[in-house]
Amino acid sequence: MKLNKWTIGLAAVGAVSLASVAQAEEKSSTLASLSSTVLSGYVDTSAQWNLGDGVTHTPGYKYGGAAKADGFNLNVVDLTLEKPLDESEWAAGYKAELWLGPDANVLGTQSSGVGADLAVKQAYVALRAPVGNGLDFKVGVFDSVVGYESSDTVNNPNFSRSWGHTIEPSEHTGVLATYRVNNMVAFSAGVADTLSPVINGRSTGAGNVAGAVNETYKTYMASTALTAPDDWGFVAGSTLYAGFVDGWNGGFGANPQQNYYVGATMNTPVTGLRVGASFDLLERQKTLPVFIPAGFGGNPAGFNSFNAHAWALYTSYQATEKLSLHGRLEYFDVSPYAADAAQAAGVGPTGTAGGLASSTLSWTGTLQYDLWKNVLSRLEVRWDHALDGSDAFGGTTVGHFEGSHFVTGSQKDSFSVAANVVYKF
Predict the structure, then answer these.
(1) 288 pLDDT band (50/70/90 cuts)?
(2) Is residue 39 in some structural domain?
(3) What secondary structure letter does DSSP report for 216?
C-alpha cells in the first residue's frame, strides 16, 4: 500500500486510520477492475416447421432434431462476462461464458454428464507475455480451433448448422497459445485433456468403453490464419484458415480421433458480395460396434474405424444496410456402416440425434432483415437429400432394411422452414 505524506500525517494525529485507507484503496482497485469488465450475450429463439410425415428422423445436424420441429423454441440464452486483454506487455484478463436452455445440453460440456439446461461454454484466463509481438494465452475452457461456423448461431451466415460443424469438436479444457506475426499471419497451438467438450475430461477411467489409455495421453491442436493485406485490391481482408486437432474423444465411442479443417472467405469485385468454402474431415479409430442393430450379423468389416467428411460453399450478399442474403451448399459423407448404425440407434456418429444417410446433399437459403436495433431476424429454408437412396428422414416407423441399408425413416428428402429471432446485448 502506497501512502502520500498528507495521509501519513493525518494517520499520525488520529484523523484517519490506516485500516480504512487500505479498505478504500482495495475497494477502488476492485471498482476499477469491474469497470473494465464487459457484460454481453444474447437470447436466441426460433420457430420451425418440418414438411412431410413425421419428424422422428429429422436430419441429424447439430442443434437440430425432432425436439425443435413443428413448434416454437427457446434455443439458448448466452451470458458473458469478459475483461479483454489491453495493450500492455503483461496484460491479463478473463472470459466466463454460460449457456442456459436446451442447446446447453447439446453443447455437452457438463462434467457431471447431467445437462439441466445449463453449461459452461467458455471459461478461461487470458494472458499475454512480451515475446516478439506478444504471445497470448487462454488457460481453461475455450472454443475449438477448427470450423467455418461457430456454436453461436449469431456469428454464422445461416441459422441451422452445417454437417461440417456437426462433426467438429466444439470446446476444449487446456491451454491455447496464439501469436500474430503481422497483420497477415497468425498461428495458434494448444494442448487439452480430450477432444470432446466435457470439462475436465480424461482419457482414462471406467467411462471410456474402449478401455483406458495412459494418463499422459492428451489432445493436441494447431491452426494458422492468413489475411490478405489492404493493398491487394478487392480481395483485401479475405482470409484463409487451416486447423488440426488430434486426441481422445471421450464422447461417442471414446476412441482416438483426428479432425482436419481448411476454410476460406473471400471478398469479390461485386460490392457486398462475399464467397466462402470449407472442408472438414473426421477420422476415428477402433470404434466399438455399440450401435449395430440386432440381426445385422455382428460387427461388419469397416465399422471398427470410420470417417466422415463435408464440403461446403457459402455466399453472402449485403443487399442494403438492413437486408442480407446467405446461401450454403454442402455435400456430407460418412462411412456406410456408421450411417446404418446411427439409423438403428437414432444417434449419429457424433452423438447427434436424428436421421443420417451415408451421403447427403444439403442446401440452405437464409434471408436476414435487421428491422429492430440489436435484433437479428432471419427466415430460412433448408433441404437435405439422401444421395445413397435410403429413406433416412421423416416418418415414425420401426427400423427395417432397404437393400443393404438399415433405415428408420420414410423419405429421401427433408424440407424445413425456420424463423430465427435473436436479441444481442
Answers:
(1) very low
(2) no
(3) T
* Contact by Cβ (8 Å): 323, 311: no
**Which helix (DSSP H) or strand (DSSP E) does residue 35 occupy?**
helix 18-35
pLDDT tens-digit series, residues 329-377: 999 998 876 666 665 555 555 555 677 888 999 999 999 999 999 999 9
**Closest CA relative to residue 230, chosen from 262, 288, 184:** 184
pLDDT tens for 21-75 read: 455 555 555 555 667 899 999 999 999 999 876 667 889 899 998 889 999 999 9
What are the backbone angles phi and psi of residue 12, rounded to the nearest 5°? -65, -35
Alpha-carbon gap, residue 69 to 57, rounded angstroms: 10
Residues 99-132, buried b or exposed e (16+ Cβ, 10 A)?
Answer: bbbbbbbbbbbbeeeeeeeebbbbbbebbbeeee
Apex CA 243: angle with CA 311 and CA 260, to 5°? 50
DSSP string, 244-307: EEEEEE-STT-EEEEEEEEEEEEE-SSTTEEEEEEEEEEEE-S---TTPPTTS-SS-TT-SSEE
Instruction: Please tell me the total count of domains within the chain.
Output: 1
Each residue's pLDDT tens digit, 311-326 = 999 999 999 999 999 9
Among all chains, which residue has been given the C-alpha cell 439422401?
A: 386
Q: Could you tell me the CATH number of the domain that includes residue 261?
A: 2.40.160.10
- Identify which of 96, 177, 92 has the alpha carbon closest to the alpha carbon of residue 136: 177
pTM of the model: 0.84
Secondary element (H or E) of residue 13: none
290: left (phi over 0), alpha (psi -120 to 50) or beta: alpha
32 in any annotated domain: no
347 within some domain: yes
Domain extent at residue 146: 45-424
Q: Would 70 be classed as within a structural domain?
A: yes
Best CA proximity match to 79, nearest among 137, 33, 118: 118
Give the pairing of strands 359-369 and 92-100: unpaired
User: Cβ(209)–Cβ(290) under 8 Å?
Assistant: yes
Q: Is 308 helix (H, G, I), strand (E, B) or coil?
A: strand
3 pLDDT band, cuts 50/70/90, is very low
Beta strands in 130-229 (DSSP E): 135-143, 171-180, 185-192, 219-227
Half-sphere exposure of 190 (CA within 13 A, CB side): 31
Helix (H) or strand (E) holding 118: strand 118-129
C-alpha cell at 243: 486447423
Q: Residue 192: CB partners within 8 Å, gap ≥ 6?
A: 172, 173, 174, 175, 218, 219, 220, 221, 247
